[in-house]
Write a structure and sequence with these properties.
Layout (H helix, E strand, L loop, with lengths): L1 H27 L5 H26 L6 H19 L6 H19 L1 H6 L10
Length: 126
Amino acid sequence: MTAAAAVCGLEGLALVAGGVYLLVMGLLGRPDSPEQAEMGGVTLIALGAIPLAAARGLLLRRGWSRGPAMITQIMALPVAYTLLTSPGGLIPAGIALAAVAVTGLVLILNPATTEALGIRGPASGA
């Protein structure tokens, strides 16, 4: 449970850090499109709040936190694929992101995590 929360928390922090970087560069730097950099930064910060909330919920053993945590991992996989298929130096980032996303999914779908969150499967004998 703690490992799943750590994975979600790290992803959230990475998104927030990237968002702050884009926002600062949009405000103080000289990007091609300051408005686009600023909006991208605000978007990444907002998206970072989702896995951070999920990480907190996992640590507090809240059942609702499993959904946002799973969605975060699933959405990271196409991003990892895009990085893996891009030319240049982004391939290691794609490998790292794919590894983190798959690890996160395995931890979140682990029966021990499901049990700790109080999530029950479909009713049997119906």
